[in-house]
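Teaching assistant here, posting this on the class forum so everyone can see the example we discussed in section. The complex has four components, and the goal was to see what a joint structure prediction looks like when all of them are supplied at once.
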Amino acid sequence: MSTGFFGKLSPIRYEGAASTNPLAYRFYNPDELVLGKRMEEHLRFAVCYWHTFCWQGNDPFGAATFERPWFGDGMSAARMKADVAFEMFSLLGVPYFSFHDLDIRPEGDTFAESAYRLHAMADYFQQKMEETGVGLLWGTANLFSQRRFMTGAATNPDPAVFAYAAATVKHCLDVTHQLKGANYVLWGGREGYETLLNTDLKRELDQYGRFLNLVVEHKHKLGFTGTILIEPKPQEPSKHQYDFDVATVYGFLKRYGLEQEVKVNIEVGHAVLAGHTFEHEVALANALDIFGSIDANRNDYQSGWDTDQFPNNVPEMALAYYYILQGGGFNKGGTNFDSKLRRQSLDPEDLLIGHIGGMDTCARALKSAAKLLEDKSLSAPLEQRYAGWKDAEAQAMLKGERSLEQIAAVVEAQNLNPQPRSGQQELLENIVNRYV
Amino acid sequence: MSTGFFGKLSPIRYEGAASTNPLAYRFYNPDELVLGKRMEEHLRFAVCYWHTFCWQGNDPFGAATFERPWFGDGMSAARMKADVAFEMFSLLGVPYFSFHDLDIRPEGDTFAESAYRLHAMADYFQQKMEETGVGLLWGTANLFSQRRFMTGAATNPDPAVFAYAAATVKHCLDVTHQLKGANYVLWGGREGYETLLNTDLKRELDQYGRFLNLVVEHKHKLGFTGTILIEPKPQEPSKHQYDFDVATVYGFLKRYGLEQEVKVNIEVGHAVLAGHTFEHEVALANALDIFGSIDANRNDYQSGWDTDQFPNNVPEMALAYYYILQGGGFNKGGTNFDSKLRRQSLDPEDLLIGHIGGMDTCARALKSAAKLLEDKSLSAPLEQRYAGWKDAEAQAMLKGERSLEQIAAVVEAQNLNPQPRSGQQELLENIVNRYV
Amino acid sequence: MSTGFFGKLSPIRYEGAASTNPLAYRFYNPDELVLGKRMEEHLRFAVCYWHTFCWQGNDPFGAATFERPWFGDGMSAARMKADVAFEMFSLLGVPYFSFHDLDIRPEGDTFAESAYRLHAMADYFQQKMEETGVGLLWGTANLFSQRRFMTGAATNPDPAVFAYAAATVKHCLDVTHQLKGANYVLWGGREGYETLLNTDLKRELDQYGRFLNLVVEHKHKLGFTGTILIEPKPQEPSKHQYDFDVATVYGFLKRYGLEQEVKVNIEVGHAVLAGHTFEHEVALANALDIFGSIDANRNDYQSGWDTDQFPNNVPEMALAYYYILQGGGFNKGGTNFDSKLRRQSLDPEDLLIGHIGGMDTCARALKSAAKLLEDKSLSAPLEQRYAGWKDAEAQAMLKGERSLEQIAAVVEAQNLNPQPRSGQQELLENIVNRYV
Amino acid sequence: MSTGFFGKLSPIRYEGAASTNPLAYRFYNPDELVLGKRMEEHLRFAVCYWHTFCWQGNDPFGAATFERPWFGDGMSAARMKADVAFEMFSLLGVPYFSFHDLDIRPEGDTFAESAYRLHAMADYFQQKMEETGVGLLWGTANLFSQRRFMTGAATNPDPAVFAYAAATVKHCLDVTHQLKGANYVLWGGREGYETLLNTDLKRELDQYGRFLNLVVEHKHKLGFTGTILIEPKPQEPSKHQYDFDVATVYGFLKRYGLEQEVKVNIEVGHAVLAGHTFEHEVALANALDIFGSIDANRNDYQSGWDTDQFPNNVPEMALAYYYILQGGGFNKGGTNFDSKLRRQSLDPEDLLIGHIGGMDTCARALKSAAKLLEDKSLSAPLEQRYAGWKDAEAQAMLKGERSLEQIAAVVEAQNLNPQPRSGQQELLENIVNRYV
């Protein structure tokens, strides 16, 4: 039975590129085969509960702008929110959603009450998931909003907060397991610092390493088969976040022996805040073998904070999907929209329209990327560019069979004077533009 | 015998804070004891050959502005440059200098000729070092200026360039060993990429890992006792540099088994370009046990490129030295000025004045930092802030003796509800201001 | 009678640089003469009501952290807030405060009720001001927080919002006049856009120009003798703010004929967000004759948003006060702290400590700047540098008495080949460091 | 007769979107009608001499990478460069080119010799232009590369440099007039400062204002009918450039009475460095009635300096052309590529490929923009959004026929409480994506 929130809307359908219907897909066609796989299975879209149903439109200089019937504190508001959420998932036809504990249940007066409510809502979700066929891409714990976490959760100077956070994750992971989540995510929103002056960096990194190991140990105990993911971000809310970017997370995982256990959930906007392109972060995660999943929300390039906008630039997303496909595509991961409507986008329809635009951008980008890969338009020149390394002597250098002295002797003996070759960046960029 | 370049200048002396003599030190007093050690031994200043004697004042939109008698291509120009350089080291009274191979010898027509010239100049230096008592903080190879390195040295798609670079480093390390260098530095100026479209990230990282292992192996073969250092930088000249920041370098070292062998040389300006404070990079290197040495040149906060200016903000440098001292101070490392004069600073005196200002800034900062450390004004509240972790149960969590389930059980049983405590950032900032 | 909020604190006193009392001034000594004027009259400190008493510690990822007894919606809470505020003004001994309408009175159900409450609180303030001797630096209207202003106030596509905003400013200006405010400020928090796609730039600029003229006309009608100020900011909350920086505001004022009527209130952090130094903005406002007042809160250089921190870097503030003094110092303007405590700084004492640190930083900076000015250490070389322009022929060029052809004829006739002279930046920076 | 530089290449032809020929246009079809005008006349492409024929591939950390037969100092090298240049213009089929004096003639030993050479090359160009039909979009003087300009040209502390610069512009404008240039550009490469410490802002602005007036006066004397353009840039090479952005230039023009005489030449990358989108700068220039021409080279979003890359993102350029068309399209202005090849793009073909990609990006963007405009897909909702202002009372407010008091009275009388309406940003973004 409809909640009525979206009026008389019928499910969003694929109508093709020529459609001008704002409530139709122009590119997202779930059953269309791309590289022999259904588009839906490639993209694995998820709608995030947080920004979509919980954020009220406030910003650092402004109060709430959205007025939703489910804004409120009780369990019945939480259920109404869930009703509308699953209604929207069905209207959009997305296969997954994702959530924080705080998004789905009101905070209780005690830890036990909060936990109880979480489990109650999980049961409510389980039923809705069965009814709608929508699955859970990942669950997570909000360890950053409540004032007890203001100085960090795992990295708090107070061990009681560490314990509280650990207990919270325990319940969230249990619930994610119950709902057959494909992944469990940790975002270190307050795992970082505001000022070094009151921070013991080494101690906090060790706390964080232990915390993550606790989570991995519990996962195995549970038999949870999803992937544990860390979501890198360089700053905001903290001045410095410990999970700065993919390279930083990799070093952290290596330090605490977790590089086989934990992968990364990469967000477009966070990559940009860290001074990278999104495709860099994806390609690096592939190279380091820790690619897990993505949050497809972009940043405004002129804003220095996390704007979490729906993706709308096809050429940019096409490069990202190119590297995702090159790495084998999503396994347990998917394309999550941790996007939020602009705070001026007040209408229920805006919620759908934002997702439709984002999904179409991704679908179009995926198709471009698949074709680019299939044609080997980038990979063939790349292969050629490094071809010299197939040479036996080059391989010997690379495998550690030559010393610096031996190499120097060869250079001198052969009077080596290597000549540079064109990098052809403009040509390659033009080639990409043939596909987008 | 004087070259006459600096006219009739006599050596720069310490005259105390009240001096208004632009050619005197107001704070740098080499023999003054700070925390029981001579200031000179704490700071271990080095003048870098590159910007000081080789840079001609050109920028992307402008030609050379400096006119030095030693600008030219032959070996006699190289010797004149060395004569003036050591004269300046003596005038300033700095204990160390640092150089790239390209700074000190003209490029030859062949690799062998370039190498021959390098060794010839090293012999010339050796004599000057004996005469003046000036030591070598570090040597390095310029693997980024010549067009053969335009696509990388160790990370070049062409193995011949890898070999050429390896052979170059062999000679540079040999010469650094001969001159009793305290360290050997690698800066990955072109180890990175301009566009991912023509780059195989994984392959290049592996090449780079091998290259660095070659260097370490040669070091041990030579019996060189200096430290091998990597200098992180996020970008420029490359769009993306593989040695982005301290955390990235740490992950790289872990990946290639080098974390016990290689440390970092951190530059203020590079830290800023990477989105960090300099003291963050120092503190992180301490935490990860890879702190080596520093380049003390700052960036202009409003410029998005590497401006390499002399340090002039005492409060900022004081925090950096605070973390350096807290980590035990420099061992083999030191305070190198990879600074360059502004291109409008044409006069010989400007060369001295830039260094005097930088050295005084550092000396004043060191004294502040030492006092701050001695008084435990920051460390005592820090110790107190984490005191809860001394508790046995907290230690058990940290040591891995508790599971997530056990922690959750305690949280629920004790109905834990940890209350936040003030982070006192403003108070701590005010305390620091008592010292600077 | 004390509210008890600050416990048994006595007024903050000047104890001199050697004091280690966190609740004493080390540099701010109101009666000390600087350049023949009392320090208090130079600095004209103001505490802002907004961040200090109204902000609850929330950020985009976190809920409130502060718990103040006056948080609440009614008029009695508003009065308690005022009681504590004036208590704090007295404890600190600041001569001024500043406020937004929304800070001091709860929003009413109707415009009329809001206005009524504003006037009621103004009366309450008037009495407190008389009792304490604290004056009003400026008043302003909050035209950005409430959802009705989400798309702009003066620049709203809906003329009803323009009218609502105009009516709001009318009451705020009346009240500022009643309280003998030295200035009236407009901050264009939502005067800008989120996306050009729904924005008519030209139309909105015209609306804004008219709005500002309305304010100026009302000021003259009232006989208000304070200065009307605009506070530039490049972005946040809007993606683009119309009052981007000082140069942009100047062009706007010229366009709408207001350059004699309106001046700028420059905030340190806003200058940094716009890609400038603060001293640049001050110097430019002086050059354009529109300098009015300052907000002394700095930004974190590594954060891309407005962090509004208390100033703590003396060398930076010294340069700012140098240009302020050079322009003749404050006339009606002053040094306002639109700073906010870090959200982890929970304790009542933190409120005082933040202001003490900021005031001491400014006082120390002022003294440095005054000495620098008095000694002509910067101005004498500057005068010398441009001395060539005193020449009659140079003056003729500058006054428009020569044509391009005439100048070219002279250049050719004299075979002019001007030689560059050192800009001496390092020397000048070292000189500044003698004063800070 | 061919120089042979480009081998046996034949002119680049339009082959349509399906072409995979890297040396063909896929979208640029000069004779295709767009909104009733030939594409060539809409876009008015120009190749810039500077980066394309003079830049040698050096960067702050690297020496030249390009090896061109015309690199050298004499007049015969200058003529060979011109021969290749016009050959390339013809191969590409571009209607315009643009140049700096320094690009086209070697610097002489005296001012007179430099001027003589400029005129000699202008004569050589004139003949080539007649032969090929290529026109001049604009000429300009390089007042930033030679060391005499290191401290500014018009804004130099030395009036002799002002005179030298003025004389230089005189000849450049004469030559631009001779070659029937459509515009004359001024770029203030060194009109700014490195440090405020040695800069008299007010004085320098006045010098600059006078200089620009001299140029305008000479233009009228000559009878030159082209537009005088200023090219805004916020920084680089100077730390601060006086022509920061469009808004700053507008204020400057107003201050010196030039807003009817001078327009702006907006560069994509400069807009980004100033913290804007390119389309913002175009739309603002339209609103202020100073839009002139564009440089279509983009910046890398992750680099903090001017990367001058060929445009390759169609959605971004489409928005720019949308605002250009909305303002009536180019009059005298055009689409100049001040782009440079990546320094690794060594081959002659790369020069063509870079331009082909850039031209195709612009052509495709233009077509999208034209359709978007024709369909009123953005302008109709925009019109609707501001429709309330057609109301008589709203118009009365806007025209200055109501006072603040009158407006307040109406707000209170009507108990006005305006309700916000959705800004529909996501919907509008989706609509744009239908066109790109």
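For the discussion questions: The longest helix of chain B spans residues 348-374. Chain B has two domains: 13-374, 388-433. Think about how each of these relates to the inputs above.
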